[in-house]
Design a protein that fits this description.
four-stranded antiparallel beta sheet, single chain, four-stranded parallel beta sheet, alpha/beta, 37% helix
């Protein structure tokens, strides 16, 4: 029951609010009671940031998040996904890695919120993240996948890393259930 900010990069807030209703989740009461704020940052930042230095980009993003955090008293932050926010500015991998590092450290320092950042892994890749730096900066890494079991495809979850916590290296089946969200099922053997 803690307030949170959801940073959407690929979807407009109204589309996200509409689409999650398919899972039985009504976000509107949370927004109205100031428990949730959905911020569409891609449109806001891309028009302002071309040709700007990395520090200016990170500062603008974190300042916007800090304003919203203070406005609703947010304790949680979700950035979903990070890739479009990164690739908007540069495709040079060294720049991208430093940008992600700078963004994550600035969020930790200035906001002091629990942050969940999603990162897609390109199909067919064995990497843990798109840019090869996210998993080293994160306190935890949870890998969600589609896995072939016999003639079926199932959703699986593997907790790859959870800093300062003992983690059992087990792959679990999960389902996304209407009204509940992600529900863990049995471990795969």
């Amino acid at each position: 029951n803690e307030p949170g900010i959801y940073v959407t990069i690929d979807e407009r807030p109204e589309v996200l609010i509409r689409d999650v209703r398919n899972f039985g989740w009504d976000l509107q009461p949370l927004i109205e009671s100031r428990k949730l704020s959905i911020i569409p940052v891609r449109r806001y930042f891309t028009s302002k940031m071309w040709g700007r230095e990395m520090d200016a980009i990170v500062n603008n993003i974190v300042e916007e998040l800090d304003r919203k955090k203070k406005e609703i008293g947010a304790k949680r932050l979700v950035i979903d996904p990070i890739a479009p926010l990164v690739t908007t500015y540069s495709s040079e991998i060294a720049w991208v890695r430093e940008y992600i590092r700078s963004l994550i450290f600035s969020i930790e320092e200035r906001l002091g919120v629990t942050t969940l950042i999603t990162s897609e892994i390109p199909t067919g890749e064995n990497a843990m993240s798109r840019y090869g730096v996210e998993e080293f900066l994160a306190s935890g890494v949870i890998i969600l996948s589609l896995t072939r079991v016999g003639n079926s495809i199932i959703r699986t979850m593997f907790i790859r890393k959870m800093r300062w916590t003992a983690v059992n290296p087990t792959i679990y089946r999960f389902e996304i259930e209407r009204g509940r969200g992600i529900v863990l099922k049995e471990a795969l053997t």
